[in-house]
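Sanity check

After download, print the first record. It should look like this:
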Amino acid sequence: MDQETIHARDGFKLAVQTRGLTSAPALVLLPGQANSHHWWDRVRPGYAEAFRTVTFDYRGTGGSRGELGDWTTALFAEDAIEVLDHLGIGSAAVFGTSMGGRVAQMLAAHHPGRVSALVLACTSPGGEHARERKAETRRWLARGTREEQQAKLHELFYTPDWPGTPAQSTLLGDPTMSPREQVGHRRASDRHDAWDALPSIAAPTLVLHGTEDLMVPTENAALIADRIPDARMRLVPGERHGFFEELEDQVTPEILGFLADVGH
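Expected structure tokens:
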């Protein structure tokens, strides 16, 4: 995998990673809240066979470190544009998961010419129309040591069929983040509201969600799909927040099939 560091328009350093043939069409992979590009470690090879996969570490994660600012999903979307510009990529398919799906919504709505196809998984539109996780789940996540927190997240991300342990997962947060950086990410995600912007998304869109997702309730999938013109939606029975990894052998081919169907 190729890695480099670029500077955003405000001087913030962004760590960028690419994998796959340079001549292949580009696929931007946007990870969840408080996670770096390592979110994609397990599933990225399946996409890199067909695409030039592009990731960058969000501000406050991985190799993208600097002064804590007023971070928003719209800002992260602008960072994605900076990355595409640096790499000389005019337009790309975009796959966003969890908070990355929120960033992807802003990217597709605000820069329609740069997003040729869109996949949104385990995410929500934000704002007053979104279905938020239950108070019980929020309280559950707010208690305990880091080890206990990791165990709780593991249960929210994976079904009992998943053979891995919390220590083996790449989805449970960037351990190098400071508490202030984590708060910055949480605020960015909590303040997201793309409800009015979703109808302007012109890219062919696929919305995916697990039916047992307690992190981001499943009802959000229909809310998004109903707002984006001609969006397709599929719910994955019995799956939780990390279904795209747990069922990689099913989900990756489905996403690749969708992208091929719409011209990638």
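If your output differs, re-run the checksum step. Summary of this record's structure: The radius of gyration is 17 Å.
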